[in-house]
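Quick one:
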Amino acid sequence: MRDAFIDAAADLLDIDPRVAVVLADISVGHERFAQAAAEHPDRVLNVGIREALMVSAAGGLALTGMRPIAHSYAPFLVERAYEQIKLDFEHQGVGGILVSVGASYDWSQGGYTHFSPGDVALFDTMPGWTVHVPGHPKEVGGPLRAAALTDDKVYMRLSTIANAAPHQTAGRLSLIKSGDGPLVIAVGPALDNVLLATAGMSVSVAYANTVRPFDVEGLRALAHTGEVVLVEPYLEGTSTRVVAEALLDRPQRTLAIGVKRADLHKYGTPADHDRWHGLDPASLSERIAAFAR
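Output:
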């Protein structure tokens, strides 16, 4: 996904003089970015290992009418620079595109400093952000190019984990499988594990790769039983508020599955963390089956 993002961002630099990329050492050595920096030295800026400055610089560019793209690991881009996002974008009333890599624990060997399961929840504290969670590299370029044409506030959460096939959703819930039981919503790279987990169950499975704004209309149309299972590859329960508000006028029951809130003090591999947090197919199958009884 990072390669797909860099290719699309470099193309945007070539065709749109408003676009600028602000980096904090991460990805500066990529061939496309190195070439783009040589060709557009005034619009590819590397501020060094200063993520707060990176976000503030991007906000300043937005104030001048530029369309900034700021990019780093999720904990550095969102958690470390949250105050700058709040002040230099939100408070100033300007938009930009923030693109993270690393997701919740993609680079687990980097230790807890590189974990960021709470990033999407942080964006929920600020109104008006569009949040994309691609599940495949081919789901990256389209939303990025569309975002560059606007002045909106956009966060793209890239992962090293990808589903086997892309799904173009146009921001809506996409029904992948129909059944008589609960609606299981799989977000981004969680889809393949959800499909494996529910292979023998009569449940509906819908896919989402744009989670803010959430497709409330699609949710209401698909949640026939009022029972919803949310499988999100970030902090467990992040979208339960959205589901509760969308189904406020009908009986409802929601099971939230995601990254647990406890610091496990474990590193391992991303697959290990999926298992420890109950996001692997076997754990998902057990929890969804129990909920559907």
